[in-house]
Design brief:
By secondary structure, this protein is α+β, with helices and mostly antiparallel strands. It has nine helices and six strands. The structure holds flavin mononucleotide (FMN).
Length: 223
């Protein structure tokens, strides 16, 4: 079945980008999108602190909290890091150079208990934890009128060297944050290529009471 448009582009962004209005969770989820062009305006540190606080509150397997964050908001360091991260085969991530804030998301392989659980279940719980924490960051950013983007395609080795990050700590993701240049949203070729507004229809992803069982009642079934 054809994927459906979740209708984000039809949102009245002006209505939501209003500080004084508290957004409902569903509205916030629809508002967030991967922003790849930002205004030059710097981001207030209090807002970044709120985003990191939201991450700090995230759940994690065995409460291992395997995350740390390096926030780059000082121009020379940020530009040096962004250039190194998006060089060579990672050049498709060049847009990160234009973000006023770049966050290196650091992950430490789990505590003994979480690692044992991961081994038995053959699931990298610490990476799930990192994903949850990052989603808290980007949703908090949206509430604060800020755009954001996850970046998984970057030169981790160079960044680790640049910041002297120990070998047992990895950088699974970067996050960009800044005030969005909304005009660019429709022009963003990456968004277009990735059909970013499209989501698989709910009857393809949601089953009730068994694999492949859609929640829709058949014609001959009574209510
Ligand atoms: C783990 C992860 C890694 C991603 N890596 C990149 C990336 O390297 N470059 C990029 O431009 N977007 C990246 N994205 C953004 C996705 O392309 C985007 O979330 C997806 O197309 C849906 O669009 P939306 O975020 O605008 O709803 C990443 C997203 C996630 C969750």
């Amino acid at each position: 079945m054809k994927a459906e448009n979740r209708g984000n582009s039809k949102l009245d962004l002006g209505k939501y980008y209003n500080y004084n209005k508290r957004m409902k969770f569903g509205e916030l989820v629809k508002l967030r999108y991967s922003c790849r062009k930002y205004k030059e305006k710097p981001v207030e540190r209090e807002k970044i602190a709120k985003c990191i606080e939201a991450a700090r509150r995230a759940p994690s397997a065995c409460n291992a909290q395997p995350w740390k964050f390096i926030v780059l908001d000082e121009e020379s360091t940020r530009c040096r890091a962004a250039s190194a991260a998006s060089s060579g085969k990672y050049r498709f991530s060049r847009f990160i150079k234009g973000a006023p804030v770049l966050i290196l998301v650091l992950a430490r392989k789990s505590t003994f208990l979480a690692a044992a659980g991961s081994f038995v279940r053959n699931t990298e719980f610490y990476l799930i934890d990192i994903g949850i924490a990052c989603e808290h960051v980007v949703l908090q950013a949206s509430e604060l009128n800020l755009g954001s983007c996850y970046v998984g395609w970057f030169n981790e080795k160079k960044l680790k060297k640049m910041f002297g990050i120990p070998s047992k700590i990895s950088i699974p993701l970067l996050l960009t944050i800044g005030y969005p240049d909304e005009k660019f949203r429709e022009k963003d070729v990456v968004r277009k290529r990735a059909s970013s507004d499209r989501r698989n229809p709910v009857d393809e992803i949601l089953f009730y009471n068994g694999f492949g069982e859609s929640g829709k009642k058949k014609d001959n079934e009574s209510d």
